[in-house]
Amino acid sequence: MSSNLAINRICQNCGKEFVARTTVTRYCGYSCAKKGYKKSKREERYNPINEETLRIKRLQLEELKAREFLSVSQAAKVLGCSRQNVYKLIRSGKLPAKNLLLKKTMIKRVDIDRLFEPEKTPTGVLLEYMLGEIEKLKSQAVPSGITSKHYYSLSEVRNKYGISQSGLDSVLNSNRIEKIRQGRQVYVLKSDIDKILKGV
Protein backbone atom coordinates (compact mmCIF):
# COMPACT_ATOMS: atom_id res chain seq x y z
CA MET A 1 0.00 0.00 0.00
CA SER A 2 1.59 3.26 -1.13
CA SER A 3 1.46 6.44 0.91
CA ASN A 4 0.32 9.79 -0.48
CA LEU A 5 2.37 11.65 2.15
CA ALA A 6 4.81 14.08 0.47
CA ILE A 7 8.42 13.86 1.66
CA ASN A 8 10.18 17.19 1.26
CA ARG A 9 13.97 17.02 1.33
CA ILE A 10 17.00 19.16 0.44
CA CYS A 11 19.23 17.90 -2.36
CA GLN A 12 22.72 17.19 -1.00
CA ASN A 13 24.30 18.33 -4.25
CA CYS A 14 22.50 21.47 -5.44
CA GLY A 15 20.79 22.43 -2.16
CA LYS A 16 17.33 22.77 -3.69
CA GLU A 17 14.19 21.48 -2.01
CA PHE A 18 12.43 18.57 -3.76
CA VAL A 19 9.74 15.95 -3.14
CA ALA A 20 11.49 12.65 -2.46
CA ARG A 21 10.11 9.26 -3.45
CA THR A 22 11.51 7.56 -0.35
CA THR A 23 12.79 8.60 3.05
CA VAL A 24 16.39 7.81 2.06
CA THR A 25 16.48 9.74 -1.23
CA ARG A 26 19.38 12.21 -1.10
CA TYR A 27 19.32 13.89 -4.52
CA CYS A 28 16.67 15.66 -6.55
CA GLY A 29 17.46 13.89 -9.82
CA TYR A 30 19.83 11.71 -11.81
CA SER A 31 22.28 14.53 -12.61
CA CYS A 32 22.74 15.50 -8.95
CA ALA A 33 22.95 11.85 -7.92
CA LYS A 34 25.76 11.30 -10.44
CA LYS A 35 27.65 14.38 -9.24
CA GLY A 36 27.15 13.35 -5.63
CA TYR A 37 28.51 9.87 -6.34
CA LYS A 38 31.64 11.28 -8.00
CA LYS A 39 32.15 13.67 -5.08
CA SER A 40 31.89 10.87 -2.52
CA LYS A 41 34.44 8.80 -4.46
CA ARG A 42 36.85 11.74 -4.56
CA GLU A 43 36.46 12.21 -0.81
CA GLU A 44 37.11 8.51 -0.22
CA ARG A 45 40.32 8.83 -2.21
CA TYR A 46 41.66 12.15 -0.88
CA ASN A 47 40.37 12.35 2.71
CA PRO A 48 42.95 9.88 4.09
CA ILE A 49 45.70 11.88 2.35
CA ASN A 50 44.38 15.17 3.74
CA GLU A 51 44.06 13.70 7.23
CA GLU A 52 47.64 12.40 7.07
CA THR A 53 48.85 15.84 5.94
CA LEU A 54 47.05 17.50 8.86
CA ARG A 55 48.52 14.95 11.27
CA ILE A 56 52.05 15.64 10.02
CA LYS A 57 51.49 19.41 10.29
CA ARG A 58 50.28 19.03 13.88
CA LEU A 59 53.36 16.95 14.76
CA GLN A 60 55.65 19.53 13.16
CA LEU A 61 53.95 22.31 15.13
CA GLU A 62 54.33 20.39 18.41
CA GLU A 63 58.03 19.87 17.64
CA LEU A 64 58.46 23.60 17.02
CA LYS A 65 56.74 24.45 20.29
CA ALA A 66 59.21 22.21 22.13
CA ARG A 67 62.28 23.96 20.68
CA GLU A 68 64.16 26.55 22.72
CA PHE A 69 65.12 28.70 19.72
CA LEU A 70 63.17 29.36 16.52
CA SER A 71 63.86 30.98 13.18
CA VAL A 72 61.54 33.69 11.86
CA SER A 73 59.76 31.17 9.61
CA GLN A 74 59.30 28.74 12.49
CA ALA A 75 58.05 31.52 14.77
CA ALA A 76 55.51 32.49 12.09
CA LYS A 77 54.19 28.90 12.04
CA VAL A 78 53.86 28.83 15.83
CA LEU A 79 52.06 32.19 15.86
CA GLY A 80 49.96 31.35 12.81
CA CYS A 81 50.97 34.52 10.95
CA SER A 82 53.26 35.63 8.13
CA ARG A 83 57.02 36.21 8.36
CA GLN A 84 56.37 39.91 7.71
CA ASN A 85 54.23 40.14 10.85
CA VAL A 86 56.97 38.46 12.89
CA TYR A 87 59.47 41.05 11.62
CA LYS A 88 57.00 43.81 12.58
CA LEU A 89 56.90 42.44 16.13
CA ILE A 90 60.70 42.38 16.22
CA ARG A 91 61.05 45.96 14.90
CA SER A 92 58.46 47.24 17.39
CA GLY A 93 60.45 45.73 20.26
CA LYS A 94 57.61 43.45 21.35
CA LEU A 95 59.50 40.31 20.31
CA PRO A 96 63.23 40.14 21.18
CA ALA A 97 65.43 38.52 18.53
CA LYS A 98 69.13 37.94 17.88
CA ASN A 99 70.96 38.12 14.56
CA LEU A 100 73.45 35.26 14.84
CA LEU A 101 74.59 35.14 11.23
CA LEU A 102 73.90 37.02 8.01
CA LYS A 103 70.16 36.66 7.32
CA LYS A 104 69.82 34.32 10.32
CA THR A 105 67.53 35.74 13.00
CA MET A 106 66.74 33.55 16.01
CA ILE A 107 63.96 33.98 18.57
CA LYS A 108 63.59 32.42 22.01
CA ARG A 109 60.49 30.28 22.43
CA VAL A 110 59.80 31.80 25.88
CA ASP A 111 59.75 35.29 24.34
CA ILE A 112 56.90 34.18 22.07
CA ASP A 113 54.99 32.94 25.13
CA ARG A 114 55.53 36.32 26.82
CA LEU A 115 53.64 38.04 23.99
CA PHE A 116 50.44 36.64 25.50
CA GLU A 117 51.18 37.65 29.10
CA PRO A 118 49.30 40.72 30.43
CA GLU A 119 51.43 43.84 30.35
CA LYS A 120 52.55 45.19 33.72
CA THR A 121 51.50 48.72 34.57
CA PRO A 122 54.06 51.10 36.17
CA THR A 123 52.20 50.67 39.47
CA GLY A 124 52.43 46.89 39.18
CA VAL A 125 56.16 47.02 38.44
CA LEU A 126 56.79 49.31 41.43
CA LEU A 127 54.73 47.08 43.73
CA GLU A 128 56.62 44.00 42.59
CA TYR A 129 59.95 45.76 43.25
CA MET A 130 58.86 46.87 46.74
CA LEU A 131 57.70 43.37 47.66
CA GLY A 132 61.03 41.98 46.50
CA GLU A 133 62.93 44.47 48.66
CA ILE A 134 60.78 43.59 51.68
CA GLU A 135 61.57 39.90 51.19
CA LYS A 136 65.29 40.73 51.04
CA LEU A 137 65.08 42.63 54.32
CA LYS A 138 63.22 39.74 55.93
CA SER A 139 65.90 37.28 54.85
CA GLN A 140 68.60 39.53 56.34
CA ALA A 141 66.83 40.01 59.66
CA VAL A 142 68.43 38.27 62.65
CA PRO A 143 67.27 37.69 66.20
CA SER A 144 68.38 40.22 68.77
CA GLY A 145 70.60 39.26 71.70
CA ILE A 146 73.43 37.52 69.82
CA THR A 147 76.34 37.58 72.27
CA SER A 148 79.56 35.64 72.74
CA LYS A 149 77.98 34.10 75.82
CA HIS A 150 75.53 32.00 73.83
CA TYR A 151 76.87 31.97 70.25
CA TYR A 152 80.02 31.05 68.35
CA SER A 153 81.01 32.62 65.08
CA LEU A 154 82.07 30.04 62.49
CA SER A 155 85.70 31.13 62.76
CA GLU A 156 85.55 30.60 66.54
CA VAL A 157 84.24 27.07 66.02
CA ARG A 158 87.05 26.28 63.57
CA ASN A 159 89.71 27.63 65.91
CA LYS A 160 88.36 25.94 69.03
CA TYR A 161 87.83 22.49 67.55
CA GLY A 162 90.47 22.54 64.80
CA ILE A 163 87.96 21.73 62.09
CA SER A 164 88.09 22.85 58.46
CA GLN A 165 85.36 24.97 56.88
CA SER A 166 84.18 22.08 54.70
CA GLY A 167 84.11 19.77 57.72
CA LEU A 168 82.17 22.35 59.72
CA ASP A 169 79.67 22.81 56.89
CA SER A 170 79.16 19.05 56.80
CA VAL A 171 78.50 18.97 60.57
CA LEU A 172 76.06 21.87 60.40
CA ASN A 173 74.14 20.43 57.46
CA SER A 174 74.01 16.82 58.68
CA ASN A 175 72.79 17.90 62.13
CA ARG A 176 70.52 20.64 60.76
CA ILE A 177 72.00 23.26 63.05
CA GLU A 178 70.46 26.69 62.56
CA LYS A 179 72.83 29.37 61.26
CA ILE A 180 72.15 33.03 62.04
CA ARG A 181 73.67 35.75 59.89
CA GLN A 182 74.46 39.17 61.30
CA GLY A 183 76.24 41.42 58.84
CA ARG A 184 79.14 39.41 57.41
CA GLN A 185 79.30 37.02 60.34
CA VAL A 186 77.45 33.74 60.71
CA TYR A 187 76.68 32.46 64.22
CA VAL A 188 75.57 29.16 65.72
CA LEU A 189 74.41 28.27 69.22
CA LYS A 190 77.25 27.18 71.50
CA SER A 191 75.09 24.52 73.11
CA ASP A 192 74.40 22.88 69.72
CA ILE A 193 78.05 22.87 68.62
CA ASP A 194 79.52 21.81 71.97
CA LYS A 195 77.07 18.93 72.24
CA ILE A 196 78.20 17.53 68.89
CA LEU A 197 81.92 18.35 68.71
CA LYS A 198 83.03 17.81 72.32
CA GLY A 199 82.61 14.10 71.91
CA VAL A 200 84.56 13.98 68.64
Report on the architecture of this protein.
This protein has 200 residues and is an alpha+beta fold. It has 3 domains: 7-60; 67-137, Multidrug-efflux Transporter Regulator, Chain: A, Domain 2 (Orthogonal Bundle); 151-198. It is 53% helix and 16% strand. The chain is built from 8 helices and 8 strands; from the N terminus they run ββαβααββααβααββα. The chain has helices at 30-66, 72-79, 83-92, 109-114, 122-140, 154-161, 165-174, 190-197; strands at residues 7-10, 17-20, 69-71, 98-101, 104-108, 151-153, 180-182, 185-189. Strands 3-5-4 form a 3-stranded antiparallel sheet. A 3-stranded antiparallel sheet has the order 6-8-7. Strands 1-2 form a two-stranded antiparallel sheet. Helix 2 (72-79) packs across helix 3 (83-92). The protein is elongated, with a radius of gyration of 38 Å. The termini are far apart. The model has no long low-confidence stretch (mean pLDDT 81).
**Gross morphology:** elongated
Q: What is the structural class?
A: alpha+beta
- CA-CA gap between termini: 110 Å
Count of helical stretches: 8
The Rg value, from CA coordinates, equals 38 Å
For the report, how would you describe the main beta sheet? 3 strands, antiparallel
For the residues shown, what is the average pLDDT? 81
Helix content: 40-55%
Spans where pLDDT lies below 50 across 5 or more residues: none
Q: What order do the helices and strands follow?
A: EEHEHHEEHHEHHEEH
- Assign the CATH architecture of the largest domain: Orthogonal Bundle
What is the name of the CATH topology of the largest domain? Multidrug-efflux Transporter Regulator, Chain: A, Domain 2
Question: How many DSSP E strands?
Answer: 8
CATH class of the largest domain: Mainly Alpha
